[in-house]
Amino acid sequence: MLVESFSKRVFYFHAANYDQIKFLEPSLQMNFLKRILEIIFPNHCLYCQQIISAEGLLCSCCWQKLQFITEPKCNICSNPFEFLISENLTCAACLKRRPAYDKAIVIFHYNEIIKKIISDLKYRDKTYIAKKLANFLINKAKKEIDEADFIIAVPLHKKRLRHRKFNQSLIIIQFMLKNISKRKFYPDFLLRIKNTTPQVALSKKQRQKNLTDAFIIKPKYREIVKNKNFLLIDDVITTGATLENCAKILKKSGAKKVVVLTIAKTVFN
Fold it and tell me: On the CB side of 73, how many CA atoms lie within 13 Å of its CA?
């Protein structure tokens, strides 16, 4: 069925009479060809696979199921408050133990839709998803992007990188850099030298021990950290321990400011 549908689209593409468009302005020719490609290779909802508009992320039904992180929320970790207040405050967890980073900017709650989108990016090689996610991050953190001296990613250990083939956060940054002011790309600014076990199943004490000495700044970059602003990119904040340790290393080396920017966050009530 899919093959038959694809064959029909290819037929319609070849049936288009190029003689009718060759005298159009180049921009109109490009629009025409773009429309033809959209017919042959339609865009699909990243969750339910329904055909949607070319620039879309999700169909209208799935879009309504997204949960955005909105105010009121903690002005440090972005954890949303359950009660209404007139302004953002600092949550109890951040008051008790302030994170090493200065602020976290998060777009979505980590629900089933976002989980599938990120899983498809990380484990099913759907790297085109990174471009769509990069656009969300750019729109959410324009001020912080402008202020950042360096935009860097949470690194993967080399064993995990070999297994997964790419670091999803680095792919997202590459798409971000195509749409913002020219910046040098630093794919290896931070290194993960310890192959840690997944954090989710561990206690708070175990998480900290698990990540002890897990990250370093690559030696050739250590001298340029002082008094610089960093934008630290990751896909999801789950326990927060990984980002905390990365930020701590940057701050210990003299970073002026570290802002965390992620697609989603697991919200703990």
Answer: 20
For 99-125, the pLDDT digits (tens) are: 999 999 999 999 999 999 999 999 999
pLDDT value of position 269: 66
Euclidean distance between CA atoms 260 and 230, whole angstroms? 8
CATH 3.40.50 fits 62-265, yes or no: yes
State the pLDDT at residue 6.
Answer: 46
Q: Which residues contact 219 (CB under 8 A, 6 or more apart)?
A: none
- Please tell me the distance from the alpha carbon of residue 193 to that of residue 205, in angstroms, as a whole number: 20
- Whether the pLDDT of residue 30 is over 70: the answer is no
**Domain limits of the chain?**
2-60, 62-265
**Cα separation, 176 vs 155, whole angstroms:** 17
Stated as kind and residue range, the H or E segment containing 26 is helix 26-40
Which of helix, strand or coil describes residue 21?
Answer: coil
Q: Is residue 262 classed as helix, strand or coil in its secondary structure?
A: strand
Does 205 score more than 80 pLDDT? no
Q: pTM of the entire structure?
A: 0.83
86: Cα separation from own chain's centroid = 29
Give the ranges where 41-157 is alpha helix by DSSP (H).
60-63, 92-96, 112-123, 128-140, 142-147
